[in-house]
Amino acid sequence: MDNFIIKGPTTLKGTVAVSSSKNATLPIMAALLLSPAPITLEYLPKLRDINTMKKLLENLGMKTEVVDEKNNHLSFDASSIKSHEATYELVKTMRASILVLGPLLARFKKASVSLPGGCAIGDRPIDLHLKGLKAMGATIEIEAGYVHASVAEEGLIGTEIALDFPSVGATENIMMAAVLARGKTVIDNAAREPEIQDLACFLREMGATISGEGTSTIEIEGMSIEKMRSFSYRPIPDRIEAMTLIIAALMTKSDVIVENIRSDHMSSFFQLLKEMKAKFDVDEEKRIAHLYKSNDLHSVKVDTAPYPGFPTDAQAQLMSLLTQVKGASVVTENIFENRFMHVSELKRMNADITLKGSAAFVMGDTKLQGAPVMCTDLRASAALVLAALVAEGETTVERIYHLDRGYEQLEKKLSALGANIKRVREV
Ligand code: UD1
Known about the structure:
The protein is an alpha/beta fold. The protein contains 14 helices and 24 strands. It starts with a strand and ends with a strand. The site of uridine-diphosphate-N-acetylglucosamine (UD1) has 21 residues, from α1, α5 and α6.
C-alpha cells in the first residue's frame, strides 16, 4: 500500500494542468457498450477507476487498443460483446460500474450487474436507476446480490420518467438506455451536471438525438443500432480536480496558474471564492485560472447541492481551506449522509471543527500540525493532502489508493509546483 509523506508548510509556484474528468469519462465508457462501431477516446485520465471500468468492459468482451500511449488515447470495439454480467469482483471496487446496466440492457435485452452495496460515504441506493428502467419495460429481479434485468425481444420503450431526486447516475443510466429504446424518452427532474452534458454530446456523436441536457428535462429519441457511427472523443476537464488545485494555491497563499479548466462548469465555486475575497482571474477562452497570493480570505456559509450548486465532491477540500481563513464557517452537506469522514482526520492535524447533523462548523485561522492520517474516501484524501501542505512538520497520508481512484499523479503535479510530497511504499 502506498502512502504520501508531505512536509509543510509550503508555498507553490507555477502552472499545473487539469486532467480529463473521471466522472465524465466513466459513463462515456459505459456508453461504448451501445455501439458496434469502433470509437476512440482521447486523453483518458490515468486513474484506478478508469482502469477498473476498462477491465469491466474487457470482461464483457470489449476489445481495447492503445492508439497513443503518451496521451492515453484508446480505441474500443464493442462489436463482439459475449457476456452481460458485471461481477462482484469489479463492481465492489467502483460504484459507477452500475452504469453498464442501462447500455447492456438496451443493446442485448438482458444484463446482470452486482449490487454496488454501501460505501464509505453512506448508503447509496440505486432505486432510481431501476425505477427508470422498469418504466421503460424492463423486468428487474434482485437475487443473491445481483440485479438481473431483462426486456422482451422488441426492447425498451421510450416513456416519460420523473426522477424523485436529480441523481447523476440514474439520469446517465436512463439516457444511455433510451438511445436504443423505441420512441421518445423524457427524463424530468434530470441531473444537470456538466458530466451529463458531456455524455449527451458523446451520445450525439454516436448518432443519437438528444436535447435539453443541462436543464431539468432531457429528451432522447430512440435510434437504430445500424446508424451508430465511428468517431473520436475527448471528455471534458475534471472540474473537481481543478477546484482541488485551486484550493491548494489559495491555502498556501501562492501564485499559481491552473490550465485546462472549463470555468463555465465551475460558476458556483468561483462565486464562493469571490465571497471569500480570493484574488484570481479567469480567462474563459484560454481555459485558465490565475490564483494570486490571497492573504485575507473570509469565512463563508456553504451548502452542497446538485449542479449548479456547490458540489459535494469539493466539500472536503473546501473544509481544509476554511481552517485557514478569517472567522468561523459553516458547511452543510445535503447530498450524502456520512460525508464528513475527513473531519476526524483533520482534527488529528489540529483543525477545530464541530459536527452537528449535516452541518460542520469550521473555525478559521488554525495552525495545522503534521500527523499520521488515513484516507477514508476519494475526496477526503484530497482534503488531507491539502491540509498537509500548510501543516507544520511531516504528515503521513495513509491508504492513498482512495486518492489514486480519482486524481492523476497528484503528487507529481504538486511537487512540480514546489510541494514537498513523496509517495512511499509501505513494506
Ligand atoms: C455521482 C458522482 C459522485 C458525486 C455524485 C453527486 C460519478 C461516477 N460519481 O455519483 O462523484 O458525488 O454524483 O454529485 O459520476 N440516490 C438514491 N437513489 C438512487 C441514486 C441516488 O437515493 O437510485 C441518492 C444517493 O444516495 C445520494 C444522492 O441520491 O444521496 C446523489 O446520488 P447520485 O447523484 O446518484 O450520485 P452518483 O451518480 O452515485
